[in-house]
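Revision sheet: structure tokens.
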Amino acid sequence: MDKTYKLIIDNISENISLVRLNTSFIASRIDFNIEEIEDITVSVSEAVNYQLNISKKTEIEFLITNDEIQIDVINENLYKKEINESSDKFAKMILETLMDKVVFGENKIHLSKKLKG
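Predicted:
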């Protein structure tokens, strides 16, 4: 049975800890191991940090299925951000390394990871 969780946060750096805690809890619901949970948590915090200063709020949607977690970090102003700083390129590289799928859309960053085994 699919479950969806939504989190809407003010875009302030202190809220990244809140996002990390929620992500860890949600990822643990489908039996990811501790290393995979950490990869997912790091990826979500990188995605939130990537768009931190471009609007006042961000929405994070988690979709849990039997064998996959899909996460959308949604920000209506994301399309205005250009990837040109080395820190942005590094963040993108981290996301692509830790997650199975990463898509930078017009207003969101989509992340997904399948349960192995």
